């Protein structure tokens, strides 16, 4: 009860009681503490708005700050490298599934050639794997990247990629290319908010902006970005949630570093008890009548006489490195968690990890990477389909009835390059158990190792056949009890010795 209520209580206890009852009723009716504007939440004033209205005013600032951290922060680079290593890694292998093995091999061979820089990039500077790594980085930092399909001469097929940054969208454009559409943030939308075209600023080779923007239809543009809300139109940096924490940690590390550098220095000051003029006629004097310590340095074994009444005072600042370790570790763990990653994935610090914890963290991290892998393979599949269509139209591939059997000719899958095992013995034993118990198929295990299961079977059969011809017994691959498989691998029939 406040002072006013106490005064009222003295004059009229009934009124004071009624005021208190009303106060308690209002507190009970508030519903959620999260919606309270009490003392703790008094400065937390927010409002609801569409994603585009929320993002458009801060998008450019966030992108600029994220790029600054990308250039200058090792912690930001650690996050980016983690996604590069695990989303793209060594790249993906195409497995065409047209139903014609000969055609499959032709397509896969042509695709491998197309992925070289001079064939897939209009600038001829980046291979397809390098483009994919850049796409992962730019989505994290800038929020997205735009790929323009260019059907040009030269290369394996008349199809290449032109990469455009989100900055190149002409946000000043307001006049739609087609009547009835709207242009927002440089992108033209129809009535269902579906992109139908993109307006790009035009620059010369030195980066100076030209006057007339260019319009490119949406069918020839792939906007690689994450969409978090239905009302979101443009991109927003994936680093948004952790930008401030990364910067705070960088500032803290810099401050501690400066303090440790100061602490590593030994500072000596001379305290003079005798006035500058001195007493009597004794003492060592300069021309001004004072003892000169300027330019003196501490050296091993040094013996130095001080002036009468002078004494030495040493400044020895205490360091803060031990306290900083816990602080930085906590911050890195929070930064990693904000990006869906474990502390070990971001910091590369495995000092406190066991096999079980490292394995569990790797599994959880893999679920985070899976979202980006799915987005990346969707983009790769669209590029692949344009590649096959261009190859058919240019006569590179012989595909009878292509337009009637388009889905069959475009069918494919991607095999991701494998990662190293944490403990090969335990992992191989687990795979063997899963295979024998039916929890995994041979195709699953080969896919995890970045191999095509048919190629793996052919290679195994080739090795065993060659070994038998040379009189070397190498055994075979045994699934289940393995009786039939083992007998076939040794060349005998069931029932034979």
Give the secondary structure arrangement, pairings included:
Elements: H1 3-11, H2 13-28, H3 51-56, H4 59-72, H5 74-88, E1 92-96, H6 101-114, H7 117-120, H8 128-141, E2 144-150, E3 160-164, E4 182-184, E5 187-189, E6 195-200, E7 214-217, E8 221-225, H9 243-263, E9 267-272, E10 310-315, H10 321-338, H11 343-347, H12 355-393, H13 406-410, E11 412-416, H14 424-436, H15 442-448, H16 453-469, H17 483-490
Antiparallel strand pairs: 1-11, 2-3, 2-8, 4-5, 5-6, 6-7, 9-10
Name the overall outline.
extended
Describe the largest sheet: 4 strands, antiparallel
Q: How much helix, percentage-wise, in residues?
A: 40-55%
N-to-C span? 98 Å
Low-confidence stretches: 278-284, 479-490, 492-497
The total strand number stands at 11
Helix and strand sequence: HHHHHEHHHEEEEEEEHEEHHHHEHHHH
Tell me the fraction of residues in β-strands, as a range. 5-15%
In round numbers, the mean pLDDT is: 84
What would you report as the Rg, rounded to the nearest angstrom?
Answer: 35 Å
Class per helix and strand makeup: alpha+beta
Strand order of the largest sheet: 4-5-6-7
Q: Count the helices. How many?
A: 17
Characteristics of this structure?
single chain, 497 residues, alpha+beta, three-stranded antiparallel sheet, 45% helix
């Amino acid at each position: 009860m406040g002072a006013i209520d106490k005064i009222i209580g003295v004059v009229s206890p009934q009124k004071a009681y009624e005021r208190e009852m009303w106060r308690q009723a209002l507190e009970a009716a508030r519903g959620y503490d999260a919606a309270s504007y009490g003392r703790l939440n008094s400065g937390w004033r927010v409002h609801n708005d569409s994603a585009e209205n929320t993002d458009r005013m801060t998008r450019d600032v966030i992108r600029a700050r994220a790029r600054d951290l990308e250039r200058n922060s090792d912690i930001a680079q650690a996050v980016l490298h983690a996604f590069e290593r695990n989303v793209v890694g060594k790249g993906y292998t195409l497995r065409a599934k047209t139903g014609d093995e000969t055609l499959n091999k032709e397509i896969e061979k042509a695709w491998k050639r197309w992925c070289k820089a001079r064939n897939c990039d209009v600038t001829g500077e980046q291979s397809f794997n390098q483009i994919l790594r850049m796409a992962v980085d730019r989505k994290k930092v800038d929020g997205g990247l735009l790929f323009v399909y260019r059907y040009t001469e030269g290369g394996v097929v008349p199809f290449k990629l032109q990469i455009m940054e989100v900055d190149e969208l002409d946000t000043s454009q307001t006049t739609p290319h087609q009547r009835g559409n709207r242009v927002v943030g440089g992108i033209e939308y129809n009535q269902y908010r579906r992109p139908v075209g993109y307006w790009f600023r035009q620059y010369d080779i030195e980066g100076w902006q030209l006057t007339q923007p260019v319009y490119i239809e949406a069918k020839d543009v792939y906007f690689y970005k994450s969409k978090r809300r239905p009302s979101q139109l443009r991109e927003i940096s994936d680093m948004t949630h952790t930008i401030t924490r990364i910067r705070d940690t960088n500032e803290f590390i810099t401050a501690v570093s400066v303090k440790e550098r100061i602490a590593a220095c030994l500072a000596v000051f001379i305290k003079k008890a005798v006035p500058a003029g001195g007493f009597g006629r004794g003492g060592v004097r300069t021309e001004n009548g004072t003892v000169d310590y300027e330019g003196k340095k501490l050296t091993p074994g040094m013996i130095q006489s001080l002036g009468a009444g002078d004494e030495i005072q040493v400044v020895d600042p205490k360091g803060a490195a031990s306290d900083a370790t816990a602080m930085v570790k906590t911050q890195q763990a929070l930064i990693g968690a904000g990006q869906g990653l474990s502390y070990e994935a971001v910091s590369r610090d495995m000092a406190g990890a066991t096999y079980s914890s490292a394995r569990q963290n790797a599994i959880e991290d893999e679920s985070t990477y899976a979202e980006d892998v799915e987005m990346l393979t969707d983009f790769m599949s669209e590029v692949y389909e344009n590649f096959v269509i261009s190859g058919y139209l240019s006569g590179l591939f012989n595909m009878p009835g292509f337009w009637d059997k388009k889905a069959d000719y475009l069918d494919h899958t991607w095999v991701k390059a494998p990662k190293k095992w944490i403990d090969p013995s335990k992992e191989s034993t687990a795979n063997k158990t899963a295979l024998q118990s039916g929890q995994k198929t041979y195709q699953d295990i080969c896919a995890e190792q970045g191999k095509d299961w048919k190629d793996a079977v052919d290679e195994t059969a080739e090795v065993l056949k060659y070994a038998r011809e040379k009189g070397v017994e190498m055994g075979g691959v045994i699934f289940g009890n393995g009786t039939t498989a083992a007998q076939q691998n040794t060349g005998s029939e069931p029932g034979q010795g």
